[in-house]
Amino acid sequence: MDVEPVSLPLSSALSTAAGTIDRREGFLITLEEPPGIGEAMPLPGWTESLEACRDALETATSIVSDCGVEAALDDLDPTATPAARHGLDLAIADRRARVAGQSLARYLGQTPRESVPVNATVGDAPAKKTAERATAAVDAGFGTVKVKVGARSVDADVSRIQAVRDAIGPAATIRADANAAWRLSETRRAIEELATVDVSYVEQPLAADDLPGHAALRGGDVEIALDESLRATGLDAIAAADAADVLVLKPMALGGVRRTRSLALEARARGIDPVITTTVDGVVARTAAIHLAASLGIERACGLATADRLREDLAPDPAPVEEGRIAVPDGPGIGVEFE
Ligand SMILES: O=C(O)CCC(=O)c1ccccc1C(=O)O
Ligand SMILES: [Mg+2]
Fold it and tell me: For burial by CB atoms within 10 Å, which of 64, 120, 175, 215 has the most?
């Protein structure tokens, strides 16, 4: 097992209520004979720190040489060091899929979709700029735009979303992601306004642990999606509280694509619709997340169109966005080729 540090500058930073992401640092993991690749790209606040990830992968490397990859994977805690576990789990899954001569999507599920619908991600910016970015996305063929809110007043955010609807017309789907920045009373008010411009869902309006608050917001024309709450409270608590219509799952924050697939299936069995997104990862993790979404047959647009934010990537992109969808690579494994 080889662990190589990687650092990816973003060409366009992502501004959110929880801060701005402008660089991604992590590790590329390589297994040999048979080959497999994985990516551990920690995002502090969502996963362990870079240092904790490095330490966990160092320990994993020594367990691999003494006891093999499965023992090393067992030792990686999906809650404490989810990005490190994601990296090794993916390298193992990629290796197994390649050995079986299957795409990762087929290895994960028997009848994957050939392509997945994806949303454009529009960061915080003034109303005019927000509307321009949303228009550019719809002109490029996206059927869904997700707009980051919560970095300014609720009134300002409502105006931004109204400007987006005015600019893009009635056809495209709009979502708003508040990254836990809003309070219950102002969210009720915002949702009333957002319903009039046909916003499909609001993602994580309230604090991650406020499941009763989110439950109280459900039932109207605007659905409630939970993201941060999954790691903070767990699926059992979310389902028991009836707190979500949609669950946003990030493999890097949840300890790997295979665990994330199990969680997504469990969510669906409990009547909650899963959506897969990245944490603005490199091509290895991003493409793996595309395979995962395809293996689940997800019909809602997923947050996987994040490649264009990277100024540099780890390898050429085998799965570009076309007309708001990404075709899943159908060769063996993840399908990322290093030059
Ligand atoms: O879902 C998307 O459109 C892209 C991913 C995204 O928004 C995101 C990226 C990094 C960290 C957090 C988030 C988030 O969904 O809150
Ligand atoms: Mg989110």
Answer: 175
